[in-house]
Design goal:
Layout (H helix, E strand, L loop, with lengths): L4 E6 L6 H12 L4 E5 L6 H4 L4 E6 L2 E15 L5 E7 L4 E7 L6 E5 L19 H9 L4
Parallel strand pairs: 1-3
Antiparallel strand pairs: 1-7, 2-5, 3-4, 4-5, 4-6
Length: 140
C-alpha cells in the first residue's frame, strides 16, 4: 500500500494545535471543520480517502487533520472556492521545520511526519531553531 497524498498549510491566526482546536470548536461546533481555500486540488482522488492536512505553526509542522471531502463554496464576491472538510480530531505530529509559503502544498505521505505516540500529544514542541538543527542532521 502506498502512503496517501496530503496537503501542507500554514496555520495563520493560531499559534498552536490547541488554539486551532479551540477556534474550530467555536466556529463549527460539533460538526466537521471546514477550511476554505482559493484553489481546488487537481489531485483530489489521491487525497481521498486517506489524506490529511498538515498544519504549520510558526515555522513548525506540528499537527494534522484527516481530509473528509471537498465542497464548492462561492464567496460573496462570486468566486468559486474549495472547502476542505476536516475531521475534528487534531493529531499532534513530530515537529518538523517548514519555511513559510503561500497557499498550500502537496505533501507526499513518505515525507509526512509521524503522529506523536499516545500520551505525548500535550508535550510542548522543541524550539524552532533546535528542531531545525536536529532535522538537518537527520535526528527528527
Amino acid at each position: 500500500m502506498t502512503a496517501p497524498l496530503n496537503i501542507a498549510k500554514l496555520c495563520v491566526g493560531c499559534d498552536s494545535p490547541e488554539e486551532l482546536a479551540q477556534w474550530q470548536a467555536g466556529r463549527w461546533g460539533d460538526g466537521p471543520a471546514c477550511h476554505v481555500t482559493r484553489m481546488w486540488p487537481k489531485r483530489e482522488s489521491e487525497l481521498l480517502p486517506d489524506g490529511s492536512i498538515y498544519w504549520v505553526f510558526k515555522g513548525l509542522m506540528l499537527a494534522r487533520q484527516r481530509l473528509l471531502g471537498f465542497e464548492e463554496r462561492i464567496g460573496a464576491d462570486g468566486i468559486r472556492r474549495c472547502g476542505l472538510i476536516l475531521d475534528r480530531q487534531i493529531m499532534r505530529t513530530v515537529a518538523v521545520p517548514r519555511r513559510a509559503f503561500q497557499g498550500w502544498r502537496y505533501l507526499p505521505g513518505a515525507e509526512a511526519p509521524p503522529d506523536l505516540p499516545t500520551g505525548r500529544g500535550s508535550e510542548s514542541p522543541l524550539p524552532p531553531k533546535l528542531a531545525a538543527a536536529l532535522a538537518d542532521v537527520g535526528l527528527i
